[in-house]
Amino acid sequence: MAEFDLAVRGGQVASGFGGTVRCDIGIRDGRIAALAERIAGAAQVLDADGLLVLPGGVDSHCHIEEPQADGTVSEEGFVTASASAFAGGTTSVVCFVPQWKGQGVWERYRDYRRRAAGGMLDHAFHQIVTDPTDRVVAEELPRVVAEGVRSLKVFLTYEPLHLTDGQFLRVLAAARRLGCLVSVHCENRDAIAWRTAELLRAGLAAPKYHAWSRPAVVEREATHRAIALAELVDQPIQVFHVSCAEVAEEIARAQARGLKVWGETCPQYLVLTAADMDRPGFEGAKFVCSPPPRAREEQARLWEMIRRGTLDVVSSDHCGFSYGGERGKAAHGRDAPFPDIPNGIPGLAARMPLLFSEGVARGRIGLDQFVRLVSTNPARLMGLYPRKGAIMVGSDADLVLWDPARRQRLTNALMRHAIDYTPYEGLEVIGWPVATIRRGVVVMREGKVQAEPGSGRFLPRDPYAMI
Amino acid sequence: MAEFDLAVRGGQVASGFGGTVRCDIGIRDGRIAALAERIAGAAQVLDADGLLVLPGGVDSHCHIEEPQADGTVSEEGFVTASASAFAGGTTSVVCFVPQWKGQGVWERYRDYRRRAAGGMLDHAFHQIVTDPTDRVVAEELPRVVAEGVRSLKVFLTYEPLHLTDGQFLRVLAAARRLGCLVSVHCENRDAIAWRTAELLRAGLAAPKYHAWSRPAVVEREATHRAIALAELVDQPIQVFHVSCAEVAEEIARAQARGLKVWGETCPQYLVLTAADMDRPGFEGAKFVCSPPPRAREEQARLWEMIRRGTLDVVSSDHCGFSYGGERGKAAHGRDAPFPDIPNGIPGLAARMPLLFSEGVARGRIGLDQFVRLVSTNPARLMGLYPRKGAIMVGSDADLVLWDPARRQRLTNALMRHAIDYTPYEGLEVIGWPVATIRRGVVVMREGKVQAEPGSGRFLPRDPYAMI
Amino acid sequence: MAEFDLAVRGGQVASGFGGTVRCDIGIRDGRIAALAERIAGAAQVLDADGLLVLPGGVDSHCHIEEPQADGTVSEEGFVTASASAFAGGTTSVVCFVPQWKGQGVWERYRDYRRRAAGGMLDHAFHQIVTDPTDRVVAEELPRVVAEGVRSLKVFLTYEPLHLTDGQFLRVLAAARRLGCLVSVHCENRDAIAWRTAELLRAGLAAPKYHAWSRPAVVEREATHRAIALAELVDQPIQVFHVSCAEVAEEIARAQARGLKVWGETCPQYLVLTAADMDRPGFEGAKFVCSPPPRAREEQARLWEMIRRGTLDVVSSDHCGFSYGGERGKAAHGRDAPFPDIPNGIPGLAARMPLLFSEGVARGRIGLDQFVRLVSTNPARLMGLYPRKGAIMVGSDADLVLWDPARRQRLTNALMRHAIDYTPYEGLEVIGWPVATIRRGVVVMREGKVQAEPGSGRFLPRDPYAMI
Amino acid sequence: MAEFDLAVRGGQVASGFGGTVRCDIGIRDGRIAALAERIAGAAQVLDADGLLVLPGGVDSHCHIEEPQADGTVSEEGFVTASASAFAGGTTSVVCFVPQWKGQGVWERYRDYRRRAAGGMLDHAFHQIVTDPTDRVVAEELPRVVAEGVRSLKVFLTYEPLHLTDGQFLRVLAAARRLGCLVSVHCENRDAIAWRTAELLRAGLAAPKYHAWSRPAVVEREATHRAIALAELVDQPIQVFHVSCAEVAEEIARAQARGLKVWGETCPQYLVLTAADMDRPGFEGAKFVCSPPPRAREEQARLWEMIRRGTLDVVSSDHCGFSYGGERGKAAHGRDAPFPDIPNGIPGLAARMPLLFSEGVARGRIGLDQFVRLVSTNPARLMGLYPRKGAIMVGSDADLVLWDPARRQRLTNALMRHAIDYTPYEGLEVIGWPVATIRRGVVVMREGKVQAEPGSGRFLPRDPYAMI
Ligand SMILES: [Zn+2]
Ligand SMILES: [Zn+2]
Ligand SMILES: [Zn+2]
Ligand SMILES: [Zn+2]
Ligand SMILES: [Zn+2]
Ligand SMILES: [Zn+2]
Ligand SMILES: [Zn+2]
Ligand SMILES: [Zn+2]
Question: Which of A300, A415, C216, D411 is most buried by its number of CB atoms within 10 A?
Answer without folding.
Answer: A415
